[in-house]
Amino acid sequence: MISTATRNRERLLGLLLVSPALLTVGLLFVYPLGFSLVTAFTGEEGLWTTANFFKAFEFYSNDILFTVVIVVLSTILIGLGAIAIGGYLTLGEHPVAVAILKWLYRWPLFIPFIVAGQLMRTFLAKNGLMNNIFVSTGLLDPLQTTSFLDWRGIVITFVWKQTPFVALLVAGAMASLDRSMIEAARNLGARRFRILAEIIVPQVQPTIVIGLILSFVVMMSVLSVPMMINAQTPTMLTVDMAFRINAYGDYGVANALGFISYLMTGVVAWVYLRQGVRAGGAP
Amino acid sequence: MIQAAWIPRAIILGLFAFVIFGPLANMLLWAFTEVWYFPHKLPVEWGFGFWARVFKPRGNAMLSLNNSVVIAIFVVITCLLVSIPAGYALARGRLPWRSLILVAFLLPQAFPSVAVHINIARIFYGFGLNGTFVGVVLVHTVQGLVFSVWIATAAFSAIDRELEEAARNIGASPLRTFFTITLPMAMPGIMASAIFVFLQSLDEFTGTFFVGVPDIMTMPLLLFTASMEGNYQIASITALILLVPSVFFMLIIERFLKADVLAKVGS
After folding, report:
1. Domain with A119 in it: what CATH number?
2. What share of residues in chain A are helix, strand, coil (percent, to 5)?
3. A210 in contact with B at a CB cutoff of 8 Å?
4. Cα distance from B199 to chain A (closest Cα, Å)?
5. A94 lies in some domain
6. Any B CB within 8 A of A105 CB
7. What is each CA distance from A226 to A113, A233, A252, B35, in whole angstroms?
8. Count of the separate structural domains present in chain A
9. Tens of pLDDT, residues B103-123
10. Which of A99, B4, B31, B133 has the largest CB neighbor count within 10 A?
11. Which residues pair with A42 in a beta bridge?
């Protein structure tokens, strides 16, 4: 029975070693999260209520829709971009072109969101470098230029910043695929686009989905980009939450909006888990 | 002679390069601009005037840079202090609910964080932690733990246990074995996790925005304030300063994060 005693001691020691880290997450994340959930359903008199949600929908239903549209559209574009980049890195015929792309696409990966926001704030403005170049090359008339600093700016910034991350994951998964099927399809004369869509993408689908879900959560969390790019209404829920706190100290409605944003990510995670079950394997 | 196939390739890669580097070029232009107004397509006057203003000793920018670096160093120390024992236990011990514990560290990155930060700020207010270094360090630590714990776990998992057993056999104590054999071998992985945590803290905006204001000014907050005030020179110089460590670490990270460790992350 000595072995059982040793194992129990080992387990206890292990838990002891993990506990400082676990305690940190518990106190500084799980507790505030619980606080947030409770506050969302608590009225001013401290009673349980759904009034915060009615108020949130009354004032911010446009912004909820705006957030959903922006994040979903960005996720789709990021997915397409990542597949295109990964696909070219896997199937590209010229090693020099592949090497150039590999060197190019990673740049935004480690650029912080706040910096990306500032870059785009100057680049996409009415007199920004983008419009200036379009005018100089004769693509646009000076009178036709418009500022992209609205919902389009947010989508462009999100896609610019997050596509490299998903592409990195997807390209890694594609590189570790068995090449024999790809070569076989190529020998049969299949075009590269068909090989990508019908052979490669289905096999790396779990990686694509994980990368897109992570990006989805990140985009739901970013406060700086919508604040810097889109200084008008409608805007994203993150900005509304900050406004509710800084202008009114209204924690009830802010947390109700927070709860709605948890729900949105929850739905995405649920779709993913369900898909994993349907595929018959672990997600 | 250039082959015909290169024409579409070059056009697409050129457009891609424009998309990637265009925004960066605009930042560089602004960083070295003295005067730039419509309808001029390039700065009217170039110069380092704003750099002198940013790097003025005791100026706002130097203070924020100093704050950011000090906070990031303390975040790294805190993260490593709790993650090294945790990573070792997760890699070696027969822990109950091991995968659940690993997932717990992912939670702060898996929820939309603004609402949680609002409530952290509210709770901290009660303890007098708002607007303090300690408060900001704690907020950044929670966000960094997923990197430090997961990478430390992977680094310890990748070590050959026979070396530890050999040290034990010739009479070294468990603690001595850990500090002379295990920890040095896990060091490259732990350094990699420290880099991730450092960058995460350096670039963190949302948590500092709610917990640090108004007393703790960091580089991201300075960038945000300058940008919202329309002071694009200061904002672009700050952005450039934040970019340098990010790009530098991106280039050297592969030296620390070896494939054998990378393969064990999250498993």
Report:
1. 1.10.3720.10
2. 80, 0, 20
3. no
4. 9
5. yes
6. yes
7. 10, 11, 22, 27
8. 1
9. 888 888 888 889 999 999 999
10. B31
11. A48
